[in-house]
Amino acid sequence: MNHLSSVKHVIIVLSGKGGVGKSTMAVQITMGLHAAGKKVGLLDVDLCGPSIPKMFNLEGRDIHQCPEGWLPVYVDKEQRIGVMSIGFLLHDLDDAVVWRGPKKNAMIKQFLSDVYWQDVDYLIIDTPPGTSDEHITVMEALRAYNPDGAILVTTPQAVAVGDVRRELTFCHKTGIPVVGIVENMSGYVCPHCSECTNIFSTGGGKALAHQNNVPFLGSIPIDRHLTLSLDTGKNFLESNPGSPALSAINHMIQKLIAIDKDLP
Amino acid sequence: MSNVPENAPEHCPGTSSESAGKVEACVGCPNQAICSSIPKLGPDKAVEEIRQKLSGVKHKILILSGKGGVGKSTFTAHLAHALAMDENRQIGVLDVDICGPSMPRIMGAEGETVHQSGSGWSPVYVRDNLSMMSVGFLLGSLDDAVIWRGAKKSGMIKQFLRDVDWDKLDYLLVDTPPGTSDEHLALIQYLSGAGIDGAVIVTTPQEIALCDVRKEISFCRKTSLPIIGIVENMSDFVCPKCHKSSIIFPPTTGGAIKMAENLGERFLGSLPLDPRIAQCCDEGKSFFEEVPDSPAVSVFKAIVEKVVNYCTGLAKHMEADTGESNMEVS
After folding, report:
1. What is the pLDDT of residue B27?
2. Which of A186, B70, B134, B290 could pair with B95 as two cysteines, CB 3.0-4.6 Å apart?
3. Closest partner residue to A94 among B148, B215, B242, by Cβ?
4. How far is CA B97 from CA A135, B41, B115, B156, B289, in A?
5. HSE toward the beta carbon, residue A155, CA cutoff 13 A
6. Is the ipTM of this complex over 0.85?
7. Could you read off the pLDDT of B45-81 as tens digits, one per residue?
8. Do residue B68 and residue A230 have CB atoms under 8 angstroms apart?
9. Contact criterion met (CB < 8 Å) for B143 and A169
10. Crossing angle, helix A244-262 and helix A22-35, to 10 degrees?
11. Shortest CA distance to B284 belongs to which of B74, B98, B135, B67?
12. What is the rounded CA–CA span in Å between residue B47 and residue A53?
C-alpha cells in the first residue's frame, strides 16, 4: 500500500532552532489551506515534544485502524483536516518518550507508510528542531514522492538565524527544494501605548532569504491572541479578524498556493 | 548488568549483556533482532575515563527543557557569566546541542577554534575564569550543517566529556538541545560515574511549552536525575516606551509556578522578557554588564544564588554523609 502517492503536495515545516513557531506555522498553514477549500493532512513527527494535538484541542483522542491502515484524527466533521501525532498514542500525556534514534526512525517510517490520508491535496509535516534522525528519515522516505519542498521558520534574532542557516544547508545537501522562509515573532505591539518593539530584533529572516536567493514568505508579528488560541485549541483564523498576525498569515498562504500553481 | 525481562526465554543473557541476541538461548526469541542490534549500555570504559577526567570539576549542572527556544542557552550563558563574576571561581560551559550550537554566538566566541594539547582539547576562554566548548568551534563555516543521526551525536558527546581539558572547575554547565532523546541519554549514561549535581529546567509560561516540560521532568524522574528547580523565562514584557508590562505568552494554566507546585518541584523564579537581553545574546555580551538596570538582573541574581546554595548544600550533605569531602580537589 502506498498512501503517499495519492497526496498531491507535500510541504515540510523545518527550523534549526526550537521554539520559533514551527508547529504554530504548520497549524496555521493547515487551517489556511483548508479555508481556501483544500483537503489537508498534518503529520507531527516531533516525537519527544508533540504539540499539534493540543493546538487543535484534540488531546485524548485515539487513532483508529481501518483495513487500509491508520486513520488520522479528523478536526472537522467533513473530514477535510486529518491529523496524526504520537500524542494520540500516549496514554499519559506527561510521560516522556525517551527514545534513541533508531526507534524514532521506525516510528516515523510507520507514520509515513501506514497512515491512510486518502486523497488529501496537501500533506504538511511538522518537525522537531535540528538536522538529525527525524529529518534524515523524513527526507529519505519522501524523496520518491517529489515533495514540494520545505518551509523554514525562523525568528529575527541572529542566534536563531544562525541555526536556520544550517537548516538551509541541510536542504541543499539532501536535495529538498526550499519553498521559502517565514520570519515569526517579528515585532510586538504594546497593548498600552501601541509602540511596536522588536523584541527579537527584526529583518533577520528576510536578509537570510535574500542572501540565499530563496523566496521570503513574510514576517509575522507577535500576537498574544495567537498564543492564546493555540493553548486553547481555537481556530485563530476565524476568531481574530483584524489582527495584524492574521493578515500576515493569510498573505503567506496566498503565496504558497500561488507557488503551487506554477508547479507541474 | 543482566536486565533479564520477566517473560524472557530460559538462559536469556539479559538485554544489556554483550552477548544479547547472539547466544543459543536467543534463537527463536521474538526480540532477538532488537537485542543484537541495539548498542550495549552496559559498563562502558568511557564512564570511568570521564569520571577521572572530570574529577577536578566540583559541580556539574545540566540545563534542560523539553521545549525549544525557551532560553536554555541564554540562561546557561548568563548563569555562567553570573558565576564567573566571582573571580575565585572557575566556570566551564559545554554545549551539547550538536545540530544547533548557539553558545559560541551568545558567549561572543564565534569563529574561535579549538586547539589540541597533550591532555586533550583545550576549551575556548571567554574570560580568565570562564571557558567553553561547543561543536560550533569544530565547524568550518557558519553555514555548515551537522547532519548526524543519534549514535554519532552520542559519540561526539562522549568525546567532549572525555577529551576536553577543563582542568579544575567549580562549575561545569551543560547546555542541551530540546527533547528527551540521544543527547540526554548520552549525558546521563556517560556522567553516571562522575555524577551530576542536578538539572535546571527552563520553560516559558504558556501551556504548549509546559506540556513538553512535564515530559522532561518525567524523563528526569525516570533516569533519577535530581532537579535543582524550574525557571520561567519570558514571563512578562515591559514596554521600553511606556514601562507598562504586558503578557505575550499567557500562562493559561497558571504558568511554571503552578506546574512546579503541582509536581512538587522547586520554583526558582520568573525572568521578564527584555528585548535588550536578546540583543546582548546576538552580540555575545553579558547583560549583567550591558544593561544592569534591567528588571531581569535582580531576578537572575536571586536564581543564581539558589542554584549555588543547592550545589554547596549538596556538597555539605555528601560530606556529612560520608564523613569526608567528596571532592578530590579543594
Report:
1. 82
2. B134
3. B215
4. 16, 22, 20, 11, 26
5. 24
6. yes
7. 899 999 999 999 999 999 999 999 999 999 999 999 9
8. no
9. yes
10. 70
11. B74
12. 39
